[in-house]
Design the sequence.
């Protein structure tokens, strides 16, 4: 990971995408360790976490995580899940947070030197390009070590730096997995 000690950093975490990537690599994220890792890399200005929540449920399994993040240094951005019926008549839910994340990246770009996007969604390639044209560096955190890969090729190519999630797993895993040999420079 290439970071400079004096650069201002903002994290933008697509919660569903990061969860899927971590599950594909068979580990759980310790968000406190994740925050501490990037706070050591430079001046951490803000860490955003994006997720959609079911409004009609008495208890959402995401609620404890969202509450913990909210009280522990993350700016949590949520919206209600949308229910719809697909072409086969099945009830489906969706909660895409791409627009919210993109707007926040563009608004924060003037306040930071380095944007870190935790998502492999290829739709963000254009966003990365727009932020780079403002003179900012952009790192993408995702994985290509799952089947299928979670990081789109066009996003990896556009980013200044691609951080393979599997390579930092030992630094951010909830179970405290052993740190890889490169951890000192990470």
Sequence:
């Amino acid at each position: 990971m290439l970071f400079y000690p004096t650069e201002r950093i903002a994290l933008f975490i697509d919660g569903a995408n990061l969860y899927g990537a971590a599950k594909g690599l068979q580990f759980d994220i310790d968000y406190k360790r994740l925050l501490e890792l990037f706070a050591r890399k430079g001046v951490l200005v803000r860490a955003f976490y994006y997720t959609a929540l079911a409004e009609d449920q008495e208890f959402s399994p995401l609620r404890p995580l969202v509450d913990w993040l909210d009280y522990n240094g993350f700016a949590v951005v949520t919206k209600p899940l949308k229910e719809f019926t697909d072409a086969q008549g099945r009830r489906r839910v969706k909660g895409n947070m791409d627009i919210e994340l993109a707007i926040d990246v563009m608004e924060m770009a003037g306040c930071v030197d380095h944007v870190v996007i935790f998502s492999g969604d290829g739709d963000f390639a254009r966003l990365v390009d727009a932020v780079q044209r403002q003179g900012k560096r952009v790192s993408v955190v995702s994985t290509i070590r799952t089947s299928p890969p979670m990081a789109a090729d066009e996003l990896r190519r556009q980013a200044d730096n691609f951080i393979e999630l599997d390579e930092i797993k030992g630094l951010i895993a909830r179970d405290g997995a052993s740190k890889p040999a490169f951890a000192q420079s990470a």
